[in-house]
Amino acid sequence: MSHLKKEMPSMFGKDSKKKELINKLPETFAQLQREHQISPGDFPDCKRMQEQLQHHDFTKFHQLRPKLLETVDQMLAQDIARLMQMIPTEEREMAASPGDADGNIHGGAFEGYTESPFGVGRGEGADAGRGEHEWVVEAKKYEYDEVFSKLNPVNGKISGAAAKSEMVKSKLPNTVLSKIWKLADIDKDGMLDTDEWALANHLIQIKLDGHEVPVKLPDHLIPPSKRTIVEDS
């Protein structure tokens, strides 16, 4: 909205400029995505936006307020992540029932037996690789390492800005990417090493494949190099 307002003339030719800006909205979206590293998934549907803009006076749009953007970024990176961790998991909700949606059976001879591979979601998404000896992310780590090396790592780590520039190419909403960042930055230093970067990419692929990103990182997805850190914490 701020960009459209800024492009409007102060005196004459407002109507013609408005039509031009609406017609060029796809180009404007692409420009803003590049300039501000915004994921395409965070933009509204372009065609519907063009239709809605027909009924608005661009000169009355508000100017950009960077401080508000910083507040929203902080909310997405910290507050939302904390709220997600407070949401009770399905396992806790189903703990009192004799059976649950994951295919686990409770009571009698089946008490304590929870490793059925036939439960809903078993072996899929974030659950893939559970119970395996090898870290499931290792299968594609060579691909992630190749990209990592191009992001100018310093002392074996890449900055948050460098990681973001590549992660937004997934076109996932920033809310999802923020959650993935929180899970992947295991040592909470604001940077990613090769294992954490590989994990972030693995979680992105899980979401792109239509599965949900876990609220808490499952033990089998923790990089072997980081498991002592998690245990100590």
From TrEMBL:
<feature type="domain" description="EF-hand">
    <location>
        <begin position="172"/>
        <end position="207"/>
    </location>
</feature>
<dbReference type="Pfam" id="PF18150">
    <property type="entry name" value="DUF5600"/>
</dbReference>
<dbReference type="GO" id="GO:0005886">
    <property type="term" value="C:plasma membrane"/>
</dbReference>
<protein>
    <submittedName>
        <fullName>EH domain-containing protein 1-like</fullName>
    </submittedName>
</protein>
<dbReference type="InterPro" id="IPR000261">
    <property type="entry name" value="EH_dom"/>
</dbReference>
<feature type="domain" description="EH">
    <location>
        <begin position="140"/>
        <end position="228"/>
    </location>
</feature>
<dbReference type="GO" id="GO:0016197">
    <property type="term" value="P:endosomal transport"/>
</dbReference>
<dbReference type="InterPro" id="IPR002048">
    <property type="entry name" value="EF_hand_dom"/>
</dbReference>
<dbReference type="InterPro" id="IPR040990">
    <property type="entry name" value="DUF5600"/>
</dbReference>
<keyword id="KW-0106">Calcium</keyword>
<dbReference type="GO" id="GO:0006897">
    <property type="term" value="P:endocytosis"/>
</dbReference>
<dbReference type="InterPro" id="IPR018247">
    <property type="entry name" value="EF_Hand_1_Ca_BS"/>
</dbReference>
<dbReference type="GO" id="GO:0005737">
    <property type="term" value="C:cytoplasm"/>
</dbReference>
<dbReference type="Pfam" id="PF12763">
    <property type="entry name" value="EH"/>
</dbReference>
<dbReference type="InterPro" id="IPR011992">
    <property type="entry name" value="EF-hand-dom_pair"/>
</dbReference>
<dbReference type="GO" id="GO:0005509">
    <property type="term" value="F:calcium ion binding"/>
</dbReference>
